[in-house]
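Need a sequence for this fold. Nothing fancy.
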């Protein structure tokens, strides 16, 4: 089928190279179908590395290296190594897979796509972690056929986090002003509506960070949901980088297409595939605790 004929709903209902469960597919069989129940399954089997101690996990039990697992089959295999019971059985803290917001999102995408439900990961910034700031974050969107819209879900926000953060909205339908995809943040900064230094995480903030998240969001919309510290092309810049006029023109186009409705899907796909500085190459640079590593995907 020619790319221009692909329906975006059908496209996102199929797994991609990151979310295809491969030889671990049996672990995703028989899971509940309700979004709330799937989120509870994920929350019962995974723990966010930045929240682990607040839940009561000791530093010695926080296996940070697990956050470098890019592909769902490896994440599922590690879950099975830690505890071989069905995923519907909640794990004790020390048996949960250590991950981050991207991992919660990618796992939900994988589960939904395995069930034939259109789902996609979004990389951007959340307004609900620190007042007055937009924190680097990932969420999942699924297509609600009845409402004919993409619904945003934060699979990370369990009851403990909702209480700690005083979350006032339903995490199963995140309001659009509470999470800004990379393109929306880029547009707001370009228009001078928000200071780019309000966007980022920890000490890493600024226009380059916003630019990098836009590039990651475009890749995620093309079903290449890489790690938050994986970089390439126009996404491999430092936090204070200011785009040149040429770069900004490309990024403006990228932002518009990532925020467009389903009718622009073919244009978005074509733009991504034909723009070398935005498309994920075979080899990327990953900025890990061990330093910058060249990774072949």
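Here you go.
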């Amino acid at each position: 089928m020619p790319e221009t004929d692909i329906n975006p709903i059908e496209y996102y209902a199929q797994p991609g190279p990151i979310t295809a469960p491969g030889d671990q597919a049996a672990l995703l069989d028989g899971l509940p179908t309700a979004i709330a129940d799937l989120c509870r399954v994920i929350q019962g089997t995974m723990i966010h590395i930045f929240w682990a101690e607040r839940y009561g996990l000791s530093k010695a039990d926080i296996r940070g290296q697990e956050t470098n697992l890019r592909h769902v089959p490896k994440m599922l295999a590690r879950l099975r190594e830690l505890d071989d019971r069905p995923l519907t059985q909640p794990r004790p803290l020390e048996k949960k897979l250590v991950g981050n917001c991207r991992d919660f999102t990618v796992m939900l995408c994988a589960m939904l796509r395995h069930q034939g439900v259109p789902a996609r990961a979004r990389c951007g910034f959340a307004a609900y972690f620190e007042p007055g700031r937009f924190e680097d974050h990932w969420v999942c969107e699924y297509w609600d056929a009845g409402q004919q819209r993409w619904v945003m879900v934060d699979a990370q926000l369990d009851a403990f986090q909702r209480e700690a953060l005083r979350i006032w909205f339903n995490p199963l339908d995140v309001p659009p002003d509470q999470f800004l995809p990379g393109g929306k943040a880029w547009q707001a900064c370009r228009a001078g509506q928000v200071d780019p230094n309000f966007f980022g995480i920890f000490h890493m903030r600024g226009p380059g960070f916003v630019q990098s998240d836009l590039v990651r969001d475009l890749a995620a919309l093309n079903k290449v949901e890489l790690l938050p510290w994986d970089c390439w092309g126009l996404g491999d810049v430092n936090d204070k980088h200011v785009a040149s006029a040429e770069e900004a023109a490309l990024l403006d186009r990228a932002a518009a297409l990532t925020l467009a409705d389903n009718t622009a899907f073919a244009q978005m796909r074509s733009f991504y595939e034909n723009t070398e500085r935005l498309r994920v190459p075979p080899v990327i640079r990953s900025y890990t605790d061990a330093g910058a590593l060249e990774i072949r995907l």
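For context: The radius of gyration is 18 Å.
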